[in-house]
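Human
Can I borrow your eye for a moment on a structure tokenisation matter? Give me a protein, with the fold worked out from its sequence. Write it directly below this note and I will take it from there.

Assistant
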Amino acid sequence: MRTRTILFLLLLLGSCQNKEESPFLLFGDGYSETPKLEFFYGNNEDLGDSIENTERTLFDSGIFCLFSLPIDLYRRELGGKFRICWKTDENVFEKWKSGFSLLETKTNEYSSWNLKGKGWVASLSEWGKWKKESDKLGLLLEWDSQVFSGGLVTYQTFAVPHPIFLQRTKESCEVVFRSQSFVGTENKRPILSLEFPCPDLEEFTERIITQNDHWLTQCEPDEPVVSEVFRHSESSFQRFMEWENPKDNVICPRSQNLEWETGGKKTSFHSDVFTKRTKLLLPHGVVILSDDPNYKGILIPKEFLSELGKKTLVRWGGSEYNDPEFFFRQGDEFFSNQIRSVSCRDQFQFWKSEDPFCGNPGLPNQFVNKEKEGAIPGCRSNQIQITEFYPGNHFDSEMPLPSYFEFQNTGETCDGSSLNWVFDDTIYPLSAGEWILPTDANFLITRKTWSGWDLLEKEKPFSIPKVVFQIPNFFWEERSSKQRIPFQTNPNFHHLLRVKEQNRYSIVIGKGKEHPHSRKGSSTYFLQYGFQISPGSVNADLVENLSTELLEYNSGQSPFLDFGFLGPEEGFGSFERENGNRYWFWKPSGTVIQTLATSPSICNGENFYQLPDDFFSKTFLSLRYQDRDRGESVLLSFDPKLIEEKSIGGTRSLHPEPFPILFSRSVYPASLCTGEFRSPGVTKHRSLEIVRSTSAFTYHSNLPFRNQTDVKLGNGGGTIPVKWQTLGGNLYSINLENPLPFFPEEQIYSYFSNPSLIQSKSFLEHKGPIQIEAIYPNPQESQNEWIYLCNRSEKEEDLSLYLVEDEGNTDELVSYQTRFPSLSPLGKAGQKFQYNTTILLPNNCAWIVDPDGKDWFFPIFQSELDLLLTVKNTQTIGNGISSGESIQIRKKQGQNSLLISSFGHKESHSGFRIPVATGEFLWLKSGSSGMSTSDFEIFREGF
């Protein structure tokens, strides 16, 4: 019968509390002047997330009540809670209000406070003093931290401490209200004690058991989820981990262990208290674990919480929490990492502290203070715009400066604590408390505060590399709605900010454009030290983009670019790569040549802008810029083979020249770089360069020939001097007055000599009828070399009259079956040939193979009309062709021979070698003369 009565009262309580009536009037006028404790369990009100009334006292119609929780939390609490009510006057009410205010007063600043009435006595003390006296007095029963001293557990929705309830004797009980402040040491914190007549505790016990049994029969097996974590020993909040039941019904966790996994190491936690207090979790109930006893949560050793914020994996049964990287201290503010966050200003906090702290341990994250009338709204993610970024000048430099992002509030005045700044996958709440940003206000997010500069700023522990070229990506996030507005840098934009190993420029952004900071608008203080930045001041200066010209390119061990400018004016220089990457740099006033390089080098000096490390990679193929002379876009292409050849292996810088010259070379050796010819940042001295025109015996140059130029015609068999004449400008021709003393089929070169030429120059003026068009010097099988040659004349040629010559030996050519009458070998893919003839028809081709080879690899251009030849002896191709070795085809002429074709052109002034790896062969490009390494393509076996 008694159980039914209790359940009826519970139902009645739930029915009444859903109405907006004062909670202490639910049982009519059944109070006297003696305090009466009323315990409730399993009843609450659904009042939303806005917390307004945080008082512990209420007085109405002559009845005064004390509540075990702040009233708005009390009304929402489904678990164990109580109130103590009695009849009294308003004077007592005011004194109790005063007493509770003393609980939040700093240590040693509160006065004596004592009250008493009919059957009750109240006093103010310190926790340490009270605890010492309490231990002397002893007790029969205690309810603290959800557990009765006899072991009975009450479950709670909120993981915040209730007052301690003690039964001293059968007639005398005591309730101790503790401070919600973390200020001072625990023993020195104030407490309020109320001694009063005991209620019927047996009834309370029966109610708890009944309700617990009811919940256990209805609970769903499931685990909670992590809702908030914090770790910082310099904060009053120390360390905690909060778990929450996200469901609308009671759950019973299937596991009574927590598992941690960090760096592959696993540990687990279990305790009797953990088992007792988490046997079930009420709907949206919270559990808090901490090594700090102030929380009155579940105590857990410190080492389990010491890795929070460091990518730790935590498991509670089937529930996993992948702890992200998080900085709990940001400047002088502290932040917890919450799964569901709200504005830091608006979030309701149970605990009081001197720390600037954003979090609410023990309560649902979404609880907020009731909005004040006329309150400034929270900032929206779309109203904060970036205006400047500076990567910092690192603290190992002579002028250490912190990195910063500068922003502007482009909307209405707002509170910044409503926003998260998310950078590099890490959340940085903007402010732990209200932070008003007026319209058009500028503020910084900075690595270190700018002390003494009176800037609107927030310090955040983000990291920026020492060398950067772009504004990093980030986004603004509204803490409540999670609406995000990203800033995504254009991956093709690169800003050259670094000179003399210091970041001298910031990046300014506005009106859809970005560029290095100009001199105008820079802070005058930093400008005197060579830094163009303006923290806290928006720079709207529009500066001219200057036309320029590439003056020098060095492709060697310490590569660089030199750009030239017409006048002393200041502005931006820019250029574009073949991959679409665009680069900006500041051209100071008075500078006419600006050097760009990848890294510090004695060869380049120190006055250069630093380029990305991979700028001069193999993909560096072209540059486009606005020409300083013509004012039009100029495209320069860099063929890797041509650059390698012209720069003589990167030892000489190149100077762009008009077509068809393309490049000249540096003449004078570098004073600081042995063996190099370069001139970074200074006047250029160019070599004479000559190229052959498409017209016979006609030539272009970049500089006048003058009288120092000698020209000859011929080959290794002999040369004759010839005269040259100018055709206007730098165009020249050879004056051929007499018939040339050479055979019609003989290969002829021109030879140019001049002191301004880096190397004497030769051109192929006449080709023989037979031409080498491919060569395989280093096959997979060592004896399977071949030379591929073709008849490019209009009449047939008998190749038995020809010789093949390498750098040491000469052999006659014979048909394959002349030397091996019974053999008709096939290629590796089964290709057939003409085996028994040396007569090569016009536009047909032949293969000269090693007599010891077999199963040769032949490229796709092999034909069954091709001749298969070998050598009469085993001196040239029979002994193997070395990689890069020069090869000549010669024709017998009595006791001598004529040069017909050459690979490597050793008889000219412009000889070359092309080494290849095993399995690679060389093929002459269509329409090329073969006088340059860039005239050949390299292919691998299998092509």
Summary: The chain has six domains: 2-213, 219-369, 384-527, 549-687, 692-763, 767-940. The chain has nine helices and 71 strands. The longest helix spans residues 201-218. The domain at 692-763 is CATH 2.60.40 (Immunoglobulin-like).
